[in-house]
Amino acid sequence: MNYPVWELTTAGGGLLIALIAVFHVYIAHFAVGGGLFLVLTEIKGHRQGSTAILDYTKRHAWFFMLLTMVAGGITGVGIWFIIALLHPSATSVLIHNFVFGWAAEWVFFFCEILALFIYYYTFGKMEKKNHLIIGWLYFLFAWLSLFLINGIVAFMLTPGTWLETGNFWQGFFNPSFWPSLFFRTFLAVIFAGIFGLLTASFIKDREVKKNLVRYCALWMIVPLVLLLLSTGWYLSSLPREAADMILGKNPEIIPFAKGFIIISAVIFLTGLAAAVKMPGSTGKPLAFVLLAIGLMYMGSFEWVREAGRRPYVIYQHMYSNAIMPSQEKMINANGILKTARWVEYKEITEDNALEAGRRIFYLECAACHSIDGYSNDILPLTKPFTVFGMDSMLNGLGRINAYMPPFMGTDQERLALARYIVEGLHKKKKPVPSPKVNQVPLEPLPLFDENEDEYLVLAWNSLGMTCIIDSYPFWILMPMGNTISAQLIRRGELPEIVATSVDMTYEVEKGFENPSASVDFWRFAEELSDLDQPLALNTGLTGNSTSGKMQFNELSNAYEASKVPVTPYSEGKGYHPYPVFTITARDKTSGDILARTKMVAPVSTETGCRKCHGGPWRVDNRAGISDETAREILAVHDRKNKTDLLAEAEFGRPKTCYTCHSRSGQDKAGRENMLNLSTAIHGWHANFLTGRDESACSSCHPSDKNGSTACLRGVHASMGLTCINCHGTLEDHALSLLKHEKSLNKKGADRLMTHLSPREVSSVEDINPRMPWEQEPDCLNCHLDFEPPETDSAFNIWTETSAGLFKARTGDGGIRCAACHGTPHAVYPAFNMYAKNRDNMQPIQYQGSPIPLGGDRNCAVCHRVEMDYPLHHPNMEKMFRNTYLIDEE
Q: Which of 671, 653, 651, 652 is nearest to 661 (CA)?
C-alpha cells in the first residue's frame, strides 16, 4: 500500500506471478527430483552393465542441466522481479524475516550449480564412485534448497507462533513445514519420472526404450501414492479456515482442486499403462502431453495452496492487498487516501471522485483483480451492480466472502470506489428515475346513513403491503395471494357481529380481474406450489378468484377470503399497487344488500433485487423482477450454496424458496436443518448493508417514500417514524432472527452472526430472539396501557405468538383491531400517493373523517348512542391528538 505499484490491467490480478511462478516451480521441483533420478539411473546402468542406459543418463543430464540452469535460473530471477513490482510489502517481510534462510539457500544453489556442471562434464571421465558422489552432492544441495524455500513458502500459509514472537525458527519450522516438505519431495520425484519419460521417448533402440519407459513409469506411480497419502497430513496441519477454504469454501478453488484430483488419476493411469501395456510404443506426443499435464498438476496445486491463504498473502499478518489487519482500525478512521503515500488526492470531491476511486482500486483490489484481463477480471464479476449495489458489496467484503479482504477506508471512499467500478469501468450512467406516480381519483364510496342504515361492514387486508416476486419462470419467494377479512356489524346500543344468514362477497375493481394476463404464475403453478393438478387461470391456491364469496372463520370471528390472486398490474393503468375491492354483505334468504364498503388490497412487485443483481425493471421502469435479474439471483445462489436452481429453472422446474426454507419457526415445510426464509434473507443481506438507517430496508422493500409504492403510509410514517423504530436497524433485526435459529442449532446461523454488531442494544446477548411472522413488535410496547407513547422504539419486545400480532388481535367486544384502525403499516389516517384517501375509505364513508373508526368519541358509528366508557380498549374516548397531520394534507 505504501509503495508505488506497477499498474497492470489486462495482465494484472496476479497473472504474471502465476505464469512465471508455476513454470519456475515446475522446473525447480524437477531440479530436485531429477537429481535423484540421474544418480539412481546411473547406478542402474552400472549394475546392468548397460552402456545404452549410461548414454541415456548423460543425454538426460545435458537436457536436465540446460532446462534447470537456464530456464530455471531466468524464471527464478523473474519471480523476484515481478513480486517486487506487484507485492513489495510482502516481499519486504519475507526478506527481512528470513535473511539467513535466503543467504543459506543461495549458498546451496551455488553448490548445486557447481555440482551439476562437474557431474555432466566429467560423465565417463571420472572414476565411477567419485562421479556418483558428485551426483549425490548435487541431489543433497538441491533438496536442501527445497528444504529452505519450503520453510519460507509454508510460512506464508501457516506462520504459527511467529505471529506473536517474530522468531525466525518458529516462522521457518511452522506447522505445515514437515508435511509440505514431504509432499513437495514426492511431487519432485513424480516430475523426475515425467521428464524422464520425455527423454526416454527419443530412444531409438526398442528394448532399451521399453526398459527405461517402465523404469520412468515407476517414478510416477510409487511417489504418487505416497504424495496422496501425505495430502491428508498436509491438510490437517493447516488452520481450520484455510483448510475449509481449500475444501470448497472458496468457489474459485473448486475447479483447481478437482483438477488436481483428476490429474492425479491421469498420471497414475498413464504411468500404469506405460509400465504394463505399452512401454515400447510410448511416443513423443504422449510424452509431451504428459509434460503439459505435469505443468497443469503443478499449477493446480500452487493455485489451491495460494488460494488457501485468502484473504491473506501472509496468513493473518498481511492481506492480499498488502494492508495489515493491525492497520484496519486506523485506516477506517482516517481513510485509505490519507494513509497511502503515493496518491494524488487526499480528499474526495465530486470532480475527482472517479479518479480517487481508481487510485483506491489499485490500492485495495488490483493485487487480485485485473481489468478486462485473464485473471479474476473485475468486469464480469461486477457487471450486475448499480452504484448502490457495488457499495453494498464492498461493505460486505470479508464478512461472508471470507476469501476477500474487507474494504478499508471511509464510507465516502467506499462510494468513490463503487462509482469508479460502475461508472468508470462499466460506463454505466446514473439510473433513470421511475416516472412520477399519477394519482387516480377514487370512485364514489357507497352511501351510509348513520340515522337509517342498520348495518355496516368493516373490511381490511391482513398485511399493510403484500410483496410478491413476479419472476415465476425462475423462482418466487412465496405464492401470490392476499387475505381479505370483514366483519358485519348490526348497529345498536349494543352492536352485534353478524356471523350467520349472510353472504359476504368481494370483487376487485375493473382492470385487475384478469391477473393471468400480466404474470406467468399459472404457467408454473404446479411446480411452484406442489399441486397435483393444473390450477385454473385467475384462481388462487385456496380456490379463490379475484371475486367470490368469503367464509366465516370462527377463530378469527370474521369473514375471510384467503390467497386472493391480485397483482399490481392493471389493464390500461400499468403498475398500480393499490387495487380496490368492493365488499358486499347480503341477506342470504332475500339477497338484499345489508351493507357495502370498499377497501384496498395492497400488493407490490417493487423489490430492489436489481440494485445488486442487475437487470432492468420488468414493468414501466418502476417494478417487477426481469428475467435477467432472476437468472443472476439464481446463479449467485448456486455459486454460494452449490445448488443447481438455475439449471432446474431453465429446464422448466422453478422453485419457491419455501421448498428449502420454512416460513417461520412453526412451519414444518422446508428442510429441517436450514434457516427459515426470513432469517436467511435478512441475515445474509445484513452483512452487506451495515451502518445504514431505514435506507437498508427500502433498498429491498417498497418502503422508499420516493419510490413507486411507498408502502409506509400510515399515521406513524406521517410522524417521521420508519421501519427501524419498530423492527430495529437491519443488523438488530437480523440478529433477533439469527439468535432464534442458532438456539435450534440451524446450519449457517453462526456464520451470518459473526460480523454483525447490534446498534439498538449494547451486545448480542441483549437481543431477544424471535420467530419471523410469529413474533413481532407489540403496539403496546410504545402505547403502554393505550396511552400516548413515551418512546419511539418498539424494538426487542416481541409478541409471544402470532395470536398477539396486531393483524390478528381482537379488542374487547370482539371487534378486530384492524377493523377500526386499518392494516399494519397503513393505520388511519393513512396517506396514499396514488390518491389521498385511498386507504381511508371506510372511516370517511362511515364518519366523514380519516381518523380511526370511533375516534373523537364517534362511537355512534356502531352504537347509535353516545358512550360514556371505553368499551373496546382503555383511553379510546380521548380525542384524536394528531389532527395537525390531517390539516397539513
A: 671
Structure-derived torsion over alpha carbons of residues 606, 611, 612, 616, reported in degrees to the nearest 10: 80
Sign, CA dihedral 730-412-332-82, equals positive
Reply yes or no: is the peptide bond before residue 874 cis, omega within 30 of 0: no
Asked if 725 and 760 count as a contact pair (C-beta separation under 8 A), the reply is no
453, 519, 448, 714: which is closest to 600 by C-alpha?
A: 714
Instruction: For residue 559, list its beta bridge partners.
Output: 486, 552
Q: Cβ atoms within 10 A of the Cβ of 689, count?
A: 23
Distances (CA, A) of 14 to 71, 83, 328: 21, 9, 23
Beta strands in 438-525 (DSSP E): 455-461, 466-467, 475-476, 482-490, 496-498, 502-508
pTM for this structure? Answer: 0.89
Q: Are 468 and 603 in contact (CB under 8 A)?
A: yes
Distance, CA of 797 to CA of 768 (rounded, Å)? 7
pLDDT tens per residue, range 5-64: 677 888 877 888 888 989 999 999 999 999 999 999 999 999 999 999 999 999 999 999
- Closest alpha carbon to 418 in 362, 354, 499, 334: 354
Strand partners, 561: 484
Q: How many CB atoms lie within 10 A of CB 520?
A: 14
Q: DSSP letter for 401, please.
A: B
Cβ pair 697, 671 in contact under 8 A: no
* Closest among 838, 819, 876 to 457, alpha carbons compared: 819
Q: What is the pLDDT of residues 717-769, one digit of tens each?
A: 988 999 999 999 999 999 999 999 999 999 889 999 999 999 999 999 999 99
Supply 272's cell numbers: 500404469
Give the 3-state secondary structure of residue 610: helix
Whole-number Å distance between alpha carbons of 629 and 619: 13
Task: Tell me the three cell numbers of residue 712.
Answer: 409506509
Report the Cα–Cα distance between both ends of the chain, in Å, rounded: 56
- 565 cis-preceded (ω within 30 degrees of 0): no
Q: State the cell numbers at 805.
A: 400480532
Three-state DSSP class for residue 339: helix
**Which residues share a beta bridge with 617?**
625
Instruction: Give percent helix, percent strand, percent coil of the chain, each to the nearest 5.
Output: 50, 10, 40
One-letter amino acid at 343 equals: V
Which amino acid belongs to residue 803? A
Q: How far apart (Å, rounded) are the C-alpha atoms in residues 580 and 546?
A: 11
Helix (H, G, I), strand (E, B) or coil at 236: helix
Q: How far is CA 886 from CA 441, 457, 849, 851, 879, in A?
A: 19, 24, 9, 9, 14
Strand partners, 598: 582
